[in-house]
């Protein structure tokens, strides 16, 4: 199947910089992009289907590098609407201890639907809650991604230090370390796909350096490296966490990670709010990526990450919406805009440009996930493409001046059409084959019955 998009405004990299290109076209052949260029040139190629793109802005699918899809079950929960991270966690662990396979799958479908409708085509999911006696497994998340056509990095998370050992989670929410490692092996064996263009990969991801033992942290790193998969965790999110690490381990979080072989080109860390210039240099030197989650940092009052300094010093930064209980929206374009605005609060109007925000939400994510085939519209890349209507009222005026600037600075509309791996998953602003209204109604019913106070 060959699909051609004619006469659109594209945003693609030119000399490494996202650039708006008018009157351009794309040819999609199967799962890949086969041609990109001025419409007249691309029109030479025959296609089975031709889409008139003259009223569309066409961009590479956005990449979300940090999420907890199950958290839509406790999205907007009144008891934690105004809590900082540790109080928020202490309350929510109790609610999350009743998770099961069906509730996690439905919650993940809700979040994935929202992400797809925002033009996001790849998401990471950090799932670390396997309560005692529950039937929940990582497959709940993989099934949800499959059902909606999302490309996923499913992180097999873990927690092994419960309250009885000085940790935050109740003991029934943590697992035995041998069982964690055995299940990591199992999901790697069954589901990890290392091929270029893979729709599912498995990453390994202790919840945080302080919710597992030092031994498990090290063994997880060894297992990941023996299998060539990525490592992911939370790091340096709050001052409470910094104080906890200093008290318990005698070092700050980034140094603790370094001591346990947790920095490198195969590691992406969520947050990195409280990092010194020396720690930023260490992240840059080790090619460790950061998943910046601005809305969550604002919602929990965690602080303003020094993203401008990270970019200046050569750290690869990507964008994550974070879980739905600390960012009550899963809008990836909106999250890129939040990143831009938050840096300007701290660093003035030049702290982040629209092109930088766009770059970290696309190629930055691709680099963090070690996916060179994602994050740009170019020949040979995976056909992950988001199309936004240029005549949407939210972009009116701005799109005539600067399409890329319009998408990053205005309130972005929902995507009108989205391709993941060459397959249409959003069409005419609606999910293909899934009724979002029915999904939301079913989910609301579940939340009222099982997760409401
Ligand atoms: Zn998180």
CATH class of the largest domain: Alpha Beta
Major sheet attributes: 9 strands, mixed
Detail the poorly predicted runs.
none
CATH architecture assignment name of the largest domain: Alpha-Beta Barrel
> What would you call the shape?
globular
* Subunit organisation of the chains: single chain
> What share of residues is helical?
25-40%
Counted by DSSP, the helix tally is 16
Content of β-strand: 15-25%
CATH homologous superfamily of the largest domain, by name?
Metal-dependent hydrolases
SSE-based structural type: alpha/beta
Number of strands: 17
Total domain units: 2
Mean pLDDT: 96
Taking all Cα atoms into account, the compactness measure Rg is 21 Å
Which topology of the largest domain does CATH recognise? Answer: TIM Barrel
Ions and ligands: zinc ion
Q: What is the terminal separation in angstroms?
A: 50 Å
């Amino acid at each position: 199947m060959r699909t051609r998009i004619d006469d659109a405004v594209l945003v693609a990299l030119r000399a490494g910089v996202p650039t708006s290109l008018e009157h351009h076209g794309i040819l999609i052949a199967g799962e890949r992009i086969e041609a990109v260029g001025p419409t007249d040139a691309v029109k030479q190629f025959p296609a089975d289907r031709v889409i008139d793109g003259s009223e569309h802005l066409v961009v590479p699918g956005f990449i979300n590098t940090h999420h907890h899809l199950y958290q839509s079950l406790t999205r907007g929960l009144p008891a934690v609407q105004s809590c900082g991270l540790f109080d928020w966690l202490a309350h929510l662990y109790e609610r999350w201890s009743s998770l099961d396979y069906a509730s996690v799958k439905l919650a993940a479908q809700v979040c994935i639907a929202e992400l797809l409708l925002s033009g996001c085509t790849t998401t990471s999911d950090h799932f670390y809650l396997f309560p005692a006696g529950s039937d929940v497994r990582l497959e709940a998340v993989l099934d949800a991604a499959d059902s909606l056509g999302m490309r996923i990095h499913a992180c097999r998370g873990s927690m092994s230090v419960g309250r009885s050992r000085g940790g935050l989670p109740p003991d029934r929410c943590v697992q035995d370390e041998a069982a964690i490692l055995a299940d990591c092996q199992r999901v790697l064996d069954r589901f990890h796909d290392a091929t270029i263009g893979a729709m599912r990969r498995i990453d390994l991801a202790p919840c945080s350096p302080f919710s597992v033992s030092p031994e498990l942290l090290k063994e997880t790193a060894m297992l990941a490296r023996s299998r060539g998969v990525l490592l992911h965790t939370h790091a340096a999110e709050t001052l409470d966490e910094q104080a906890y690490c200093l008290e318990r381990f005698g070092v700050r979080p980034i140094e603790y990670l370094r001591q346990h072989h947790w920095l490198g080109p195969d590691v992406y860390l969520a947050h990195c709010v409280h990092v010194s210039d020396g720690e930023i240099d260490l992240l840059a030197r080790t090619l460790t990526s950061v998943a910046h989650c601005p809305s969550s940092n604002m919602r929990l009052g965690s602080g303003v990450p020094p993203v401008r300094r990270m970019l200046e010093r050569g750290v690869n930064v990507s964008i994550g919406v974070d879980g739905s209980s600390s960012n009550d929206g899963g809008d990836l374009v909106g999250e890129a805009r939040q990143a831009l605005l938050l840096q300007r609060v701290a660093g003035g109007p030049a702290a982040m440009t629209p092109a930088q925000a766009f770059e970290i939400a696309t190629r930055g994510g691709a680099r963090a996930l070690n996916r060179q085939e994602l994050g740009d519209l170019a020949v040979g890349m995976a056909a992950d493409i988001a199309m936004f209507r240029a005549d949407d009222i939210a972009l009116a005026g701005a799109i005539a001046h600067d399409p890329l600037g319009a998408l990053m600075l205005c309130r972005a509309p929902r995507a009108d059409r989205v391709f993941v791996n060459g397959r249409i998953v959003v069409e005419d602003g609606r999910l293909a084959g899934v009724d979002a209204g029915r999904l939301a109604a079913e989910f609301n019913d579940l939340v009222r019955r099982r997760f409401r106070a």
